[in-house]
Hints:
Blueprint: H1 2-5, H2 21-32, H3 44-61, H4 68-88, H5 105-112, E1 117-118, H6 126-137, E2 141-143, E3 152-154, H7 156-169, H8 173-180, E4 183-184, H9 186-191, H10 193-196, H11 206-214, H12 223-244, H13 254-266, H14 273-304, E5 308-309, H15 311-322, H16 343-349, H17 363-366, H18 370-387, H19 389-392, H20 402-411, H21 418-443, E6 452-455, E7 458-461, H22 474-484, E8 488-490, E9 496-498, H23 499-502
Antiparallel strand pairs: 1-4, 2-3, 5-7, 6-7, 8-9
Helix pairs in contact: 2-14, 3-4, 3-6, 3-7, 7-11, 13-14, 14-18, 14-21, 15-18, 15-21, 16-21, 20-21
Amino acid sequence: MIFWNKDILDDTTGLDILGVRAIDQGMESDLVNGITTVSARGRYFSILPWAINQFYNMTLEAGEPFDQGALTAFLTRVEFLIIAASQADPTGGAGGAILGSDYFAPQMKLLKSGTAVSLPLSKSSRILNIYYNPCKSVGFIGNAPNGSPVPYQITERGRAIWQARQGRLEGSPLLDLLFRGGDVDHAIAEAAVSEFSLGALVPESDEARLLRDAFQTAYPSAASAREMIEHRYRLLRGTQAWIASWADSGRASADQLLALNLQQVSAGQRRDTASLAWASYEWRRRQHFALELLLNAVCGVLGALGGAGTVDDVVRATREEWNLNERLKDLWPAASDAWSSTAIVARGSVPPDLFAGKALRFRSVDELSPPEKLMASFAILSALQDQTRSFRGTLAAHANSISDLALSLIISVGDQPFAEFLSELAERCAVTPHLQVTLRKMSAGQKCSLRFFPDGNVLRLTANQTNAGFSGTRLYNTINVLSDIGILTRNVDGSLATREAAA
């Protein structure tokens, strides 16, 4: 079967190799009202509706018909000016996550050296692709009705943000430059700082005030959508209050907040709705990591077996190699005793506070050998079962999910030998779902992301191997956006505070 084992396929590492990612990502998406894993900066939320409406107005004034290619070219030039202005910002506070800064790096280098560069002719707009739906979620733009000559509708809230920005830009030569194209030099980049730098949004400005209102107050909508929109805003306001509640903790990163929140909810120290919701998300995200770790471990042990073996062979090899390794014992001191015990005794020997309060990613797990990772995945799932017991009953189940199957197996573990249970866990929660998910994707025309393929009971490795993964969190971007628009601020030590408290 050279076809599978040679690196000649148009393959991919795959983003959801077990079909579990959608659970935690869907939960988090509901809590942040449309902010995505790539929509990281607040000022894009005001620049995009302004830019679309500005293009509409300038097209009408020029007596030209609407052209989608011309709009995306205009938006690309806006993106370019954002990069130039952010890099020319004398405060140095523009920060990161600037769209296209890598792609246009050569032009930015020339600008800094004093050389003028031409605005790009590209007709591919990142700002539209990445920020359209987030802007739609807070009521700035929407799909135009059928029969409209333009594809995007600027809402009443969007027109207000356009007016706030246009009041400062009216008559600026930057507008014609963006509409018609031309050259940008360092002086032009400096002139654009106040309106286009991601770090120059003044908290007291109308633009910032309108952005804060958009993230805190639901927008007018048709009766059929009103309940859903109000619900999403209640969740978003709860998230904002939840983030603010950590202001005195000294924790600034999203992963730190999620870890500490799960620990405190598990201990009964937090019981509010938002804390429970974020604890549930982090639980599912950690399950996601543990299950991908289980799959990664199976692949690693198969590799040591020469690239082929049954699931029982994988567990047998893990047991044989276990005495040669000691690192996992730092995390699970009784790990070596598990092989001579029942599964229920092995589960009970896992420290219930394993990784409690520690942020993903668990670097100590990355350093483990494949056999140790197989054991670690069981340990993490067992500890999560303990850590979530106090609040799990208040949360919705995810029927037919691998996450709930893994939980059910861990909860109902009995007197079978530990090795027998580990084989069942690996087969039902890693091997079978990986094959089902990946072959389904391939049948739909997606690229190959198989880690192995079955040959009877034997699994044969492919060349496509990666490490265990987990979902990048939208919470990180939510904190950035709320900080950008002035709902939150960052203290000198990096910790968070509400704007009123900071003032």
